[in-house]
Specification:
110 residues, alpha+beta, two-stranded antiparallel ribbon, 3 helices
Length: 110
């Protein structure tokens, strides 16, 4: 498997496990120094904080996420993947689903 394929596989697993509400499965795709930057909220830094964030999220919502790779660039020990996403987040307590689209940049270090 080449680097681009490994990045695609990592993202596919992240999406699959996230759609299943599996916090541990999502964390398998992240490093201990993972930084997530959710909109309208402080950065979530480190595996423990990411675990807590996803645990809280999956307690209150289900997600249906799809992603598309726009570009992957690998240069030595660094790579980035530029992606587009669409997701529908549904409150478990009831209420209207929330649909959002956006873009992400994932940075990978060997």
């Amino acid at each position: 498997m080449n680097d681009e394929q490994a990045i695609e596989q990592n993202q596919a697993t992240f999406v699959e496990r996230g759609n299943a509400g599996d916090t541990d499965g999502v964390l398998m795709c992240c490093t201990d120094d993972f930084v997530m930057m959710p909109p309208n909220a402080p950065a979530v830094v480190g595996a423990a904080a990411v675990r807590a964030w996803f645990g809280e999220f999956f307690e209150h919502f289900t997600a249906d996420l799809t992603t598309t790779t726009d570009e992957i660039v690998v240069d030595g020990d660094l790579a980035y993947a530029r992606r587009s996403f669409a997701w529908t987040v549904t409150p478990k307590a009831g209420g209207e689903p929330i649909r959002e689209t956006g873009k992400t940049v994932l940075v990978y270090r060997r």
